């Protein structure tokens, strides 16, 4: 019991708060009904006794030390593996509309040794209409929950998981006093993360990691599109240069800082003025950097111009050919192509662009490595490329982008003389920005780059099968991008393949 002086305050809402001062302030908050009448008559200067108690059997320090997790007594909508009564919910002062109406919902539940955070948006027309409390209870039971605590409504409660808001809180700005924090002390022994505040800072972080002693040369591509950066991966690898990203109209601060810290002297711009404006070029020159630009009239011509800078010899062992309208196949190809010193050319799915055809026609190529299935690069396109270059076609493809990346990496592991099977670089396969600098990074280490689905690695059976195959030798996985791109849960999943 603590003796204290009470100062009574009020809010515009129907609830009432009182401040209790005993040397320092303590906040007492009551519900709209229970206890409000007892507090309503208090005035400044009143003396009260405050008693805080827990279950008698859990009052000893030893008992608390053994606790793993705990949920309050209510409002539990599931207890002991069964739904609690609606009457008990009414006693928690829920209105009938709240009980029976479909609304946004948030809840926390215990399911065996797991803690489940459940959110039902309810604010996406045509996608989610919310749930009743009974439906929320049924959902949590279906997920294996034994105890489920309904939080203060999906609209009032902000559910933040891995740095991302997973529901849409109320726009009215209602505040909720309580905070619920779920954390773990998992050590992540088999994985690391290279990330920054945005795509430009992430690329800068990757550059510092791959070139710890600095870099005389730097390759610069736009971060607002993918073709130039993907085709430029082998160029960066050949120059022993990191690949940094820029906005089209200005040089981002993280990129400018990285250029200074790396001690760069020369910068190669990828793409024309529509991709990287003259103002960016002027900023670079003002920093004392020697600037050159490699560009074509469009993405295919730019890729071909970059290919000439990578390999301008009349005879080549191989070139990589990937779709130029989407990024996953070319992204996966950037690392092995860079390590093998082979250019990456881009193509339309059903037509070989003139710039690509011209590059191939001027060279004698032993092998054209086509990355992706026939929907990405049609057989007729692959055949024409082979006819122009006089080489054989090797198609590396799977049922989807993840299977294609796995097939490509499995082949590349046998082609890279310095490949270390103990390491792997991983990027998200549905979004490109954080992965753009990953190809040169992986190539510099003779590593391979694998893409995985957002949110859950196990959403791709092909990715899991590939990782399972690596597990006996894998010791280190490097994730590219922050938790909004690859969550801590995904890091945990990937870490498991590296610590067996």
Fold and architecture overview:
This protein is an alpha/beta fold. Helices cover 32% and strands 24% of the residues. The protein is built from 18 helices and 23 strands. The strands form 6 sheets. A 5-stranded antiparallel β-sheet has the order 6-5-9-7-8. α12 (328-340) links the parallel β17 and β18. α8 (227-238) packs parallel to α12, α8 packs parallel to α16 and α12 (328-340) packs parallel to α16. The radius of gyration is 29 Å and the shape is elongated. The two termini are 52 Å apart. Residues 1-22 have low confidence and may be disordered.
Quote the distance from N terminus to C terminus.
Answer: 52 Å
- Main β-sheet, in a few words? 5 strands, antiparallel
Helix content: 25-40%
Task: Assess the beta-strand content as a share of residues.
Answer: 15-25%
CA radius of gyration is 29 Å
Structural class given helices, strands, pairing? alpha/beta
Envelope shape: elongated
Strand order of the largest sheet: 6-5-9-7-8
Uncertain stretches: 1-22
Average of pLDDT = 85
Number of distinct beta strands:
23
Please give the count of helices: 18
Structure described in brief:
With 500 residues, the protein is an alpha/beta fold. It contains 18 helices and 23 strands.
List strands and helices in order, with pairings.
Layout: E1 2-10, E2 16-22, E3 24-29, H1 36-40, E4 46-50, H2 61-65, E5 76-79, E6 82-83, H3 86-90, H4 96-100, E7 105-111, E8 114-120, H5 133-142, E9 147-150, H6 153-156, E10 160-161, E11 164-165, E12 191-194, H7 199-210, E13 217-222, H8 227-238, E14 243-246, H9 253-262, E15 266-270, H10 278-286, E16 290-294, H11 299-310, E17 315-323, H12 328-340, E18 344-347, H13 354-361, E19 364-371, H14 379-389, E20 392-396, H15 401-413, E21 423-428, H16 438-444, E22 449-452, H17 461-470, E23 476-480, H18 488-498
Parallel strand pairs: 12-23, 13-14, 13-15, 15-16, 17-18, 17-19, 19-20, 21-22, 21-23
Antiparallel strand pairs: 1-2, 1-4, 2-3, 5-6, 5-9, 7-8, 7-9, 10-11
